[in-house]
Design goal:
By secondary structure, this protein is of the alpha/beta class. The chain has a single domain, classed as Rossmann fold (3-Layer(aba) Sandwich). It is built from 10 helices and 8 strands. It has helices spanning 4-15, 25-37, 48-51, 92-105, 122-139, 152-168, 191-197, 203-214, 248-260, 283-298; strands at 52-59, 62-69, 76-81, 107-112, 145-150, 174-178, 237-244, 265-274. The protein has an 8-stranded mixed β-sheet, with helices on both faces. α5 crosses α6. The longest helix is centred in the middle third of the chain and has 18 residues, at 122-139. The protein starts with a helix and ends with a helix.
């Protein structure tokens, strides 16, 4: 049974009309056009600098933020790829998760503000993400190297891990995916029933965002939809999902296919939880964040 706070937040999403942003292809195109006229900020909140050291570099055309503990050597290294349907920038819940990883797990987090669709397409974005992952793995240091992403960023993370594996067989120590979007065709037969209960997303809007990100590639190309790529030889997978998320099918399919390919994979599916609940201020989200922190300490 979901917590009272969780149920209240889902109801608030519905009352606030959160689904309107993803209600149709037209709504997504209007959103993209608005962002093109007035780009959103991806800057971290100023409060983050009070808890961590924050610096910025440019990798390719991407601003990349390094966020590390102030008072100790990092105990882990995390490449974090944010969600937002490939059309939205980093927002406060993403930075809050990064702050938790730094403060509670002592992680050094590398956080790219990758180029958004339609300028940023899979054929350009996946190689740069793989390069960032390769550099982090090769940098060495104490503790594990973890690849992490939520939603669209989780799909990008898995595609980057597949590309790095194909390039030289290298992998991080673990891959953590939060409500991953892995099949941009949105063709799973169970998604119709899930969509009716999802307080945030609809398939019509997601398909349009996916089309913009795919560019000239087919929706089933593994660079676009890594669920259709090989899942063998990857780092162990830990996946978080909720039963009120239209993308829950992607998590379930990933776990089944990864295990069939011989890749260790575990799924934590929270009853009654919406998309990306580990980023939300609800008890179930806090429990998921605490689980991630423990994993970083134990890896």
């Amino acid at each position: 049974m979901p917590s009272l706070r969780s149920r209240a937040l889902s109801a608030a999403f519905v009352m606030a009309g959160r689904r309107r942003r993803w209600a149709s292809a037209e709504a997504v195109r209007a959103q993209v056009a608005s962002t093109a006229r007035r780009p959103a900020s991806h800057l971290p909140p100023r409060s983050l600098a009070r808890a961590a050291t924050v610096s910025r570099s440019i990798v390719g055309a991407w601003p990349v933020y390094d966020v590390a503990p102030r008072d100790r050597e990092p105990a882990a290294r995390v490449l974090y790829l944010h969600g937002g349907g490939f059309i939205d920038e980093l927002v406060r819940p993403h930075w809050s998760l990064v702050r938790t990883l730094v403060a509670a797990a002592g992680a050094h987090c590398v956080v790219p503000a990758y180029t958004l669709a339609p300028r940023g397409t899979a054929d350009r974005t996946v190689p740069v993400a793989a390069d960032l992952l390769s550099g982090l793995v090769e940098s060495g240091g104490p503790g594990p190297t973890v690849l992490m992403g939520d939603a669209a960023g989780a799909g990008l993370a898995l595609a980057a891990a597949q590309r790095l594996r194909d390039r030289n067989g290298v992998q991080p120590d673990r891959i953590v995916l939060i409500s991953p979007w892995l099949d941009l065709s949105l063709s799973h037969p169970d998604q119709s029933a899930l969509e009716a209960r999802d307080p945030v997303q609809t398939r019509a809007g997601l398909r349009e965002a996916g089309r913009l990100y795919a560019g000239t590639l087919d929706a089933l190309d593994p660079r676009v939809s890594p669920l259709y790529g090989s899942l063998s030889g990857l780092a162990p997978l830990t996946v978080f999902s909720g039963t009120r998320d239209v993308l829950a099918t992607d998590s379930r399919e990933l776990i089944a296919r990864a295990r069939a390919a011989g890749t260790p994979a575990e799924l934590f599916e929270a009853e009654g939880q919406a998309h990306c609940h580990p980023l939300l201020p609800v008890p179930e989200g806090r429990a998921a964040r605490e689980h991630i922190v423990r994993m970083l300490a134990e890896s």
